[in-house]
Amino acid sequence: MIKAYKISPLFLLLILSTCFAQKNTKPNVIYIYADDLGYGDLSCYGATKIQTPNLDKLAASGVRFTNGHATSATCTPSRYALMTGRYPWRKKGTGILPGDAALIIPTDRTTLPNLFKKAGYKTAIVGKWHLGLGEQVEKNWNAEIKPGPNEVGFDYSFIFPATADRVPTVFLENHKVVALDTNDPITVDYNKKVGTDPTGKDHPELLKLQSSPNQGHNQTIVNGIGRIGYMSGGKMARWVDEELSTTFLAKAQQFIGVNQKKPFFLYFALTEPHVPRMPATMFRGKSGLGLRGDAILQLDWTVGEIMKQLKTLNIDKNTVIVFSSDNGPVLDDGYQDEAVTRLNGHTPAGQFRGGKYSALEGGTRVPFILSWPGTVKPQVSGAMVSQMDLLASFSKLINQPIPNGDAPDSENLLDAFLGKSPKGRSIFVEHAGTLAVIKDGWKYISPAKGAAYDELVAIETGNSPEPQLYNLNEDKSEKHNLAAQHPEVVNELKDLLMKIKQK
Ligand code: NG6
Ligand code: CA
């Protein structure tokens, strides 16, 4: 005889909720953004002189894109596109911003964070912002500063305003400078010296990291490092570069911990390996490539700590991690930190020509990894994808539509991102000093007046007074300009670029 067991509904609910704990239909999303990390800087992208085991593991657990892009070869424009889904060159004032710039992200349009927020996510940014703060340049750093990240969709923000080499060298939590002593107010100026702090220019003997000749970085000294811009006051609030990364990690982990049961979106914007490279002591000398390599090890470790936390909290299978970089690599970007002298044959841009600031592939083609364990099949994808496309793609994933007219350049590439389709964008515009357009493997770089080689940073810019045409399918390193052989392709792409610009 079959005995009928009575199961209490509560018990059933408990079992079901345990089974589905990791199967929330709305996955958490963590977007980890490196700063100036090149295509060839990770061992999963072919580096042999440096090992990045955590990022390799992330790549092995998801989709590793070989044709993934930032929109631009510098920080602010790439971040603008990531946030707004709009090409940055459509809007004036989206170039590299000083540390006192006003906010350039609109507060009344769809952004990546407010898309998630509308869909019921808890949203946060931890790390580098570099998209301006407040309504104007002149602002009181000692009062509430808005609008900023919180006004464009982040429930929580813990940031530094611009770059690690620009003042003010302080953290902001939501609208306020962290650890500010009101008796020691902060003043910031990008035109003239303020206060009595020594500058790198007048007191190089006080520096622990010398700036490179002719590259500035010799204004106010903070923590033994000359910065771009002048600041005074806020002595207690100034960061210690060696602790930047672990401070951000702690804040990111805190946010994840508190929100582990909700769907959350975390934009974790790391500062490595941007200058000044001043990693924590535990990474010093570990890479053998000098401070830049050590900073990459710190970055890799940080990503590993986040992965560990997700596992411990048992939310790893319900969390999408996307990892990328805001622009290509640079070695000497303002400080004499041995990045050049101790390179040891390492190739930061991999097989690509150019680097940061460049219209050649090294400028925007960057590591791009998406992992969603249990849902996304591990693979390598050649689909052409850009960070700007995350907005439209996540809109589909979380079923949160984008109002008409917003995020106009963002393409829904969800199937490519999830490794379900090899098809990415068919057309993409790359942005440095000049614009380049890619279609069907052909790349056309618009003629530009600037120098072909930037001596200061030792990078080929991609500028040429002549049109350039490369066949990326056969010539990834852009060695052969085929413009003269294929004038019809040049004309087609030139017209195409014109049309996209007018859109
Ligand atoms: C440049 C700085 C460089 C770096 C860059 C911004 C000079 C000579 N060089 O102007 O050091 O700060 O701006 O980098 O000042 S980015 O990754 O944020 O775009
Ligand atoms: Ca950058």
Structural overview:
This protein is of the alpha/beta class. 22% of the residues lie in helices and 17% in strands. It has ten helices and 22 strands. The chain has helices spanning 9-20, 53-60, 75-84, 112-118, 241-258, 291-312, 361-364, 390-397, 414-417, 487-502, and strands at residues 28-34, 62-65, 68-69, 122-128, 156-160, 172-173, 176-177, 187-189, 221-222, 225-226, 230-232, 264-269, 319-325, 368-371, 379-381, 385-386, 427-431, 435-439, 442-445, 453-454, 459-460, 468-471. Strand 20 and strand 21 form a beta hairpin. The N and C termini lie far apart (75 Å). The structure holds 2-acetamido-2-deoxy-6-O-sulfo-beta-D-galactopyranose (NG6) and calcium ion. The site of calcium ion has 6 residues, from loops.
Span of the ends, CA to CA: 75 Å
How many H/I helical runs? 10
Tell me which ligands are bound: 2-acetamido-2-deoxy-6-O-sulfo-beta-D-galactopyranose, calcium ion
Task: Give the C-alpha Rg.
Answer: 23 Å
The secondary-structure class comes to alpha/beta
Task: Outline the low-pLDDT stretches.
Answer: none
Net shape: globular
Topology (elements, then pairings):
Layout (H helix, E strand, L loop, with lengths): L8 H12 L7 E7 L18 H8 L1 E4 L2 E2 L5 H10 L27 H7 L3 E7 L27 E5 L11 E2 L2 E2 L9 E3 L31 E2 L2 E2 L3 E3 L8 H18 L5 E6 L21 H22 L6 E7 L35 H4 L3 E4 L7 E3 L3 E2 L3 H8 L16 H4 L9 E5 L3 E5 L2 E4 L7 E2 L4 E2 L7 E4 L15 H16 L1
Parallel strand pairs: 1-12, 1-13, 2-15, 3-16, 4-5, 4-12
Antiparallel strand pairs: 2-14, 5-6, 6-7, 8-11, 9-10, 13-14, 17-18, 18-19, 19-22, 20-21
Helix pairs in contact: 2-6, 5-6
